[in-house]
Design brief:
The protein is of the alpha/beta class. It has nine helices and 14 strands. The protein is globular, with a radius of gyration of 19 Å.
């Protein structure tokens, strides 16, 4: 269980950041939640609003803080980003968000932060790689929320169409959290039965159509309401839970590859064992030839985006 002194910092008080703070509050994972943002009154107001919900649950102290406060956190969650509606590829946000994230990370590391850094800002795979290489933190202490959300979206879609609880669906989306994500159909199961053999599978849309539905799920929500926040907040909270409770749970998160799948110098998602130190073990799925090539193509997309950023 988390220590009584557990502190989590949320950097960024937009829709995602405040939703994360509220989800963390409701799940009783920390005794202190620190909020950091650019607008002093807004951050103070969000902290007060959240603090006033505390008497209905477990005691938690929530306050607008500084990077010095953040440095004493077990987990620092980065949700900052350029304002405005999402449109096009997540990679289109890289140039602006890289500047913001680098600035936040520099301030955090200057104060001696040595906890787990959790990236929830898009394009999160490239930003996770940047945070890993520039922070000096050990590999594994920098995590991107990755395709955890994509995987849950796929499980939901399959469960809905097969009329079965999504918790009984075991399917993985790996690679980029974005347009080059890869669904591992060869390993998909429902209650231990290979998806290809499950009753009703012949009624499903094609694998390509299903993956497109997963990829478009976030942009669809953003187009309708201007942002996405609740689902990613749930993913952030689930990752924090695995860390603080040292669960060693297997989650689809983004981390730097060090030879897995033949890949290096890129951060992307694959199943990882997540515990007190962050990513403790990176697991390699047994991919078929098509899936392996698709993952390599996804990695190439991310590497190109990073290379172009370095040239700009």
């Amino acid at each position: 269980m988390p220590s009584q002194r557990t502190r989590i910092t949320v950097i960024g008080c937009g829709h995602v950041g405040t939703s994360c703070a509220y989800a963390l509050l409701q799940n009783h994972l920390a005794r202190e939640i620190v909020l950091i943002g650019d607008t002093e009154n807004l951050v103070h107001g969000e902290a007060l609003d959240l603090q006033q919900a505390v008497p209905l649950g477990t005691p938690v102290t929530i306050f607008a803080g500084t990077y010095k406060d953040a440095a004493a956190s077990s987990i620092a969650i980065i949700t900052v980003g350029t304002p405005g509606k999402f449109s096009g590829s997540r990679l289109d946000m890289l140039a602006g968000n890289a500047i913001i994230v680098r600035s936040c990370m520099s301030k955090l590391m200057a104060e001696g932060f040595d906890g787990v850094l959790l990236i929830a800002t898009n394009p999160l795979d490239v930003l996770t790689y940047i945070a890993q290489t520039e922070s000096g933190l050990p590999v594994g202490q920098v995590i991107g929320t990755g395709t955890l959300l994509d995987t849950e979206r796929l499980r939901h879609i399959l469960g809905e169409k097969l009329n079965v609880d999504a918790r009984s669906v075991h399917a993985a989306v790996i690679g980029e959290h974005g347009d080059s994500s890869v669904a591992v159909w060869s390993a998909a199961q429902v209650a231990g039965i290979p998806l290809a053999l499950y009753p009703g599978v012949d009624t499903l849309p094609s694998q390509e159509e299903l993956l497109i539905s997963v990829r478009h799920a976030g942009p669809e929500v953003a187009a309708l309401k201007g942002n996405t926040c609740f689902a990613i907040a749930a993913c952030v909270t689930r990752i924090c839970e695995a860390i603080l409770r040292d669960e060693r749970s297997v989650l689809m998160v983004s981390t730097m590859m060090t030879g897995q799948y033949g890949l290096k110098e890129v951060s992307l998602s694959t199943p990882c064992i997540v515990g007190n130190c962050g990513v403790e073990t990176v697991l390699e799925l047994r991919l078929n030839e098509v899936e392996q090539k698709s993952l390599e193509a996804s990695a190439a997309v991310l590497k190109r985006a990073y290379a172009q950023l370095q040239k700009s």
